[in-house]
Amino acid sequence: MSPTRWDFPVELCCRPMAFVTLTGLDVVYNAVHRAVWDAFCANRRADRVPISFKVLPGDHEYPKCRTKRTSYEWYIPKGILKTGWMNKHLNLVPALVVVFYELDWDEPQWKEKQSECATRVEIVRQSLQGRNTKVAVVLIQKKTPLPPGEDVIASERAAALCNACELSGKSLFVLPHTDHLVGYIIRLENAFYEHAQTYYYTEIRRVKSHKEFLNKTTHQLLFVRHQFKIAFFSELKQDTQNALKNYRTAYNLVHELRAHETNMLEIKTMAGFINYKICRLCFQHNTPLDAIAQFRKHIDLCKKKIGSAELAFEHAAWMSKQFQAFGDLFDEAIKLGLTAIQTQNPGFYYQQAAYYSQERKQLSKALCSHESSVTYPSPDPLETQTGTLDFYGQRAWRQGILSFDLSDPEKEKVGILALQLKERNVSHSEIIITLLSNAVAQFKKYKCPRMKSHLMVQMGEEYYFAKDYSKALKLLDYVMCDYRGEGWWTLLTSILTTALKCSYLMAQLKDYITYSLELLGRASTLKDDQKSRIEKNLMNVLMNENPDPEPDCDMSAVKTAQKLWADRVSLAGSNIFTIGVQDFVPFVQCKARFLAPSFHVDVPVQFDIYLKADCPHPIRFSKLCVSFNNQEYNQFCVIEDTQQMGDILENSAQGTMCLVPGKTRKFTFKFVAKTEDVGKKIEISSVDLILGSEIGRCVILSWQGGGGDAASSQEALQAARSFKRRPKLPDNEVHWDSIIIQANTMIISRVPNISVHLLHEPPALTNEMYCLTVTIQSQEKTPIRDVKLTAGLKPGQDANLTQKTHVTLHGTEMCDDSYPALLPDIPIGDLQPGEQLEKTLYIQCGTVGSRMFLVYISYLINTAVEGKEIVCKCHKDETVTIETVFPFDVAVKFVSTKFEHLERVYADIPFLLMTDILSASPWALTLVSSQLQLASSMTPVDHLQSHVEKVVLQTGESASECFCLQCPSVGNVEGGVPTGHYIISWKRTSAIENVPVINTVITLPHVIVESIPLHVNTDLPSFGRVRESLPVKYHLQNKTSLVQDVEISVEPSDAFMFSGLKQIRLRILPGTEQEMLYNFYPLMAGYQQLPSLNINLLRFPNVTNQLLRRFIPAYIFVKPQGRQADDTSIAAA
Amino acid sequence: MAVCIAVIAKENYPLYIRSIPAEHELKFHYTVHTSLDVVDEKVSAMGKALVDQRELYLGLLYPTEDYKVYGYVTNSKVKFVMVVDSSNTALRDNEIRSMFRKLHNSYTDVMCNPFYNPGDRIHSRAFDNMVTSMMVQGC
């Protein structure tokens, strides 16, 4: 935007910097001078001193200094501040003029050069006459200077030069043109800066000195002017603290001025300037709260100072500008690191600025609506001789007139008229929209979504006033959903009303229809007469006719719109509008409900569509259709005006296609589900209600799923919470709130009509072929086809069970791992009604535990639904849990040949292995055979033969076997020596002949083998007889590789006499054996203790007699003496 | 003297809203609605504090040129918003507080009515009268 009358002047808004001019530099043709200038002005970073440089020719004419006033007595100021003053001190009157001159100390023609330089300085001084501006000379030298004091010629000549130019030594500088140019330049400009500060200091002193001549009656304006000047010079001096202080004083002085309608604008303008400076400095000093406080004070003081009532719009414009400028300052401070908050950010100021601009628009509309015959006055009263005003804020037609009385009321009138006519051409909307969009950007940043929406609504409305309807519509449409979502219906209605106007004026059919639909709906807070009007318009549009214009529209726009609408009518083309309603609240509500959450495939699927209209008048529709996820059903669920009501069960008598406001209408549909959809969900994907006809215009209202729009979920929640009793309605009517949407249903298979019985003898025994007989009987009235059986382990159990369970139809062979756990789809064939069929399955369970088995029978049957022939697939399943147990427990123990329990066995010495099979099965078991498979470390002593062949074990019975084994010496093995396996072959006694025998392998326990130094082996008859000799031979075997010393003694026994060595000490060589022969002579009959043999191994004291005694029989049965006669008689017989 | 009093549901839709003069109704609706931005922010900042120590009165929400907007939130997150004329400097914070307390009591009475379904718009004569009394003669 180009700067307007209300924008602050640039020189006010910039940061004042000391003004220094450089002369004697030829920056166009001299490369050295160019480099010097570039070093001054290029890349000025923030750390450089704040100076604004300008290159001027040496003979430049500076603004003339007016002659100093010696007395203010007769002086009457004409205004507060001259418009040119700030610019003059920023850009025209330098604080310092620098004369650059090329001169080396060893210059041969020194005299000439010196005087030329002095002339140049003199010319500059001439043009600055009367000003306090400083002059400095910089000598550009080719040579690097020597350190001070060493170059005698240099100091002499410098002093001479200073003298010639009337300069102090501090104002003469040397700039060697060497590599370190930038460094020298920075030092130079620091020196310049000091001079500049001195200059501004003296300026401040000079202005202050005027004060004493002023009096309060005639020089009020000068107080403000001087205070402002002091503050401004302080700023130039970079003394911002004092600048702020002086501006504050100036601000107070401005408000002390006598205000009248004629000078109100001047006062406000100056107050605005000073306020701007104060706020700016406060933000710069990082005291934002001071800035805000000052601004509030400023606004409060000036709010009511409207000035001329005929130019009230000027006040609004000025207020708007104040807010906008403060917003800009605030925003700038934020960019430099200030943090704003939600409730205090620039957005509020932009917003307020926009409000004042709106006010300005209204005021100008009221004040500037002159007849078109009123022409702009000529000559232009706003023209001045210079083209600008002399003083800020004065009227062009009476500049410098301080009197409060209007000397020329006619001139005043013309001036006001000119201003009013000018105001008429201002594009207010543009200003307002810019301010609003600034505010929107701020509120977006500070988490104010609702404020943002509100401002966007205002922007939209402003666009509407500016007749940019498409932009208005875009904005309004964007924010509508926010208000809809939060349920602020009053606000939504207001926005919709504006949007409807926009869409009418642009003849946007679809938008027009959409907004009408919502304005007629229950979310709209419009009165009924308005709704009637909109409904009538909507009907007209649907009939391909023109709607009536919306109220309060601009007349010329309405004319254009009517033309557009007429064009729309004549245009053939797409006149069908599909409107998805889930995002707004239309005037027809819809709910769909399946009657049940699931339907059997042999019953028709039924559902209801409920419709309710909220508009004031009954409405006709032409078509209602329902779409499903499976589109094949769509054709069955259509109601059309022209069609016969084939699928509609009820309501066909009363006007079907008409919706009465407030009444809930029900439409019932039914269709037959496809058999392919068994097990699937049927879902209503959309419900479409078609208003209007294809002849005119057609609107398809489309509900996603089972109905519901933007507001219905909240309503449903409220309805669910409510305890209110609903009034009773006639039977065929329902309460809208009580209808719950059910948009999907399951299709499930027909109920089977067969019986399935399972016959088996639980529990199953581990690894056996467990027999399960399935009996199927058809109870259907018609033959069933394609009967299939799926049987086996129910899926979804422990994965290990699947590995260890096998199912087969053939019981005659064992299963291996290749057999599955589940046999799917075993064809059985067809069954006539009442026919029964048996199927036997064999299950092998490898581990104990319980398992679930599934028996699943499926079949096909032909049936009719609603006169339609369909093939139904039915199925029935049975599950059974079968426990698997071990058939028997096998106990194994090691005993010595004397049947004593052994913890360990001795190498090379025979021992006995006893097995004990205890039946754990509730059913009788037949042991077919058993087998002992010895490990390589074991050898049988005698022939290994099964003793349990063909033994039948009832529950709790046991069968035992005994094997004599021997283990060769193996050294010391950790954990013992493996014994081998015991294999039991068995089957159920009740099992049929050809069921395979099960082999159960039992791993025998490991046994610890120890070697013993001496083994005693006894040859002893199985019994003795009284008074008959009983020879006993003891074999003492040395099992070691050492010669053994053995002490043997025999303890006498009462029951025996004996002959043989009673006590002996002998040696047995390694690996050999010694025989000891005794002849016992029993004296008593019965079970008698033999004389005990005590063996003492001298080399192995830890092998005790006790241990060795194990091997030696201790008792023998002695039979009584037989009678001789009998013996002979027997022998004779 | 309040110029607008509103009760806002937990879900931020209006339960009750009344303003004088009636011709500025729309403007007050917008004012109340936009003030919910600040309420939301204050409530979410407060969420961390212990429930029993929570102050229901939210204080001045935001100032506009012409009005001051005050907020109050109940433990069930129902918000009360009151708009007061900026020129009315007689109203101190304490008075606003007591007005809100009165409003809260009256709202509680509405909730205790077995025929009132929580979440519905408030149509209660007692509540209306109370609001009217606050709008006319202040506290």
What does this 3D model show about the protein?
The complex is a heterodimer of chains A (1133) and B (139). Chain A is α+β, with helices and mostly antiparallel strands. Chain A is built from 24 helices and 46 strands. In chain A, the strands form twelve sheets. In chain A, strands 6, 8, 11, 12, 15, 16 and 17 form a seven-stranded mixed sheet that branches. In chain A, strands 2-1-3-4-5 form a five-stranded parallel sheet, sandwiched between helices. The longest helix of chain A has 30 residues, at 181-210. Chain B has one domain (2-137): Beta-Lactamase (2-Layer Sandwich). The N and C termini of chain B lie close together (7 Å). Chain B is globular and about 40 Å long. In chain B, a hairpin with a 5-residue loop joins strand 1 and strand 2 (14-19). Chain B has a five-stranded antiparallel sheet with strand order 2-1-5-4-3. Chain B has 139 residues and is of the alpha+beta class. Chain B has helices at 25-46, 93-112, 125-137; strands at 2-8, 14-19, 57-63, 67-73, 79-85. At the A-B interface, helix 12, helix 15, helix 17 and helix 21 of A face helix 1 and strand 3 of B. Chain B: One of its GO terms (biological process) is endoplasmic reticulum to Golgi vesicle-mediated transport. Chain B: Keywords: Cytoplasm, Endoplasmic reticulum, ER-Golgi transport, Golgi apparatus, Transport. Chain B: InterPro entries: Longin-like_dom_sf, Sedlin, TRAPPC2L. Chain B: It comes from Vombatus ursinus (Common wombat).
